[in-house]
Amino acid sequence: MMRKHIIALFLLMASTSSFSQTCEERESKLLEVVGGFSAGMLYNTYGLIGSISDGFTHDAYDAVTISELMDAQKKLADNLVKMLEELKNGGYFKDKKAQDFAGSVIIILKGLKKQAQLLEDYADNKSRQKQEAYEDQRKQNWSALSKLMGIEE
User: Is 40 exposed, middle or buried (CB count within 10 Å of its CB: 0-12, 13-18, 19+)?
Assistant: First the structure.
């Protein structure tokens, strides 16, 4: 019985402390967290595509598997771009910094989608030209991602 009272008291305290923040403070904190998740997701997607490319180079994946894996990444990128563009163009970001961040994320997502497509193209036809196109896009993506995350190249 005492345990139920303690839990109820904790929930009451937690709910009243969140009301002490202004809407702007909560929004700012939420955007900060979403930004962190976004940066982490972009970094992991970049790493995933690179790891799959390495796997293909070492014959761990065939062209069909590469196509399936990269199609999933491209669809994810398309969905995230669509959602972010709706937020950005719908005036949901009041702060220019948030708008700029969303714009940068959109650009990087489109670059990652292109990198995924170029890996598929290379897996279908192992030409030097396709490999160089993939590498060029990979480098562009790293440059944009490292800039967004504040990582020195």
Answer: exposed
For the chain, what's the residue count? 153
pLDDT tens string 23-77: 666 777 777 888 888 999 999 999 999 999 999 999 999 999 999 999 999 999 9
Helix, strand, coil abundance in the chain, percent, nearest 5: 85, 0, 15
Spacing of C-alpha 47 from chain mean position? 11
In contact, 142 and 153? CB cutoff 8 Å: yes
Q: Give dist(CA 153, CA 138) in Å, integer.
A: 13
Query: For residue 153, what are the contacts with CB-CB under 8 A and spacing of at least 6?
Result: 142, 143, 146
